[in-house]
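We emphasize that the prediction below concerns an isolated chain of 401 residues; any contacts that depend on oligomerization or on bound cofactors are therefore not represented. The input was used exactly as deposited, without trimming of termini.
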Amino acid sequence: MAHKEELGQLITLEQGKPLKEAIGEVSYGAGFIEFAAEEAKRVYGDIIPSPLPDRRLFVLKQPVGVVGAITPWNFPLAMITRKVGPALACGCTVVIKPSELTPLTALAAAQLSLEAGIPPGVVNVVMGNASGIGEALLNSPKVRKITFTGSTAVGKKLMAGSAETVKKVSLELGGNAPCIVFDDADLEVALKGTLATKFRNSGQTCVCANRILVQEGIYSKFADSFLKAVQDMKVGEGFGEGVVQGPLINEAAVQKVETLIQDAVSKGAKVVLGGKRHSLGMTFYEPTVITDVKNEMRISTEEVFGPVAPLLKFKTEEEAIHMANDTNAGLAAYIFTTNVQRSWRVSEALEYGIVGVNEGLVSTEVAPFGGVKQSGLGREGSKYGMDEYLEIKYVCLGNLS
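Result of the prediction step, given as a token string:
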């Protein structure tokens, strides 16, 4: 793959994640372009049998039009390709408004699109005042769709603003992912999966485990092993050898983590590892484990977006499902169990758009990504993600007899 290393280095420089993760993001992002290009051949219409002999009924799928794509800083390349790939495949032009924290990756992607043969004016990047650009996209009747990945609060504003011109909207918003470890889980699999989903990108993804629910029979064994594994995590700048945890994106992110931990401790939680800024300074934060966490604490009800693992204990399957669903969010959830019947029961009972069973890394271009409740609208990736950029037109041919 051309430019893989250069793009990975740019992501690490701009966003801070370890180089291995950044290069992985490049491959992940390229997957959406390849998949969408393949899927463009399968944007099928339909023929409907007519109830009248002199009519023929057809269904056409046509591009929705100009797309306004507002993308986040945590995956500055992949969140662009996940939106732009299907938009182009469906015949739409795109205006990208990248995060002001990671604009260079967006510019690099746009330049590479030109080099790949995309005509000028098809993929556009606009940088500057975020609210001003957002208002321009919302107010323009030429922009027929808004696609956004980011916070629930901003997503609600975009949804409301899109109503004035009745735009098509897809929103991938905040999560509050539960990771449920049952007594019958394979401990090694559960540890590996939980660590992966909690500490990926230093906890700065919308599908990171926000609450780790552990059944009481396995709690002590899991907590001890989990603590040891987190202690071994190497923190440092993204180009460092063996580094698995980089810095948080900015000072505001660190302060949010500190506030949530302080609230939890004031209500009875215990910090058993970390819980403070790293000795490296700047926006580095120690990987943190907190026990005695309750569902009503802010750290359980708000998206942490940091390297903090709250452990909560539960007794029964029913209690775990209730705790997991006790949130307005509904993006991703994870369960670890060797019981096939339980995996089906719990997967269907969880009010989430994505469920990982015995797996902590579930994202792929071939599967639909998106949430329910206040975690968003629509899906990205897979064949279902193509529909977000299409309008359905019904054509009736009459008087044919």
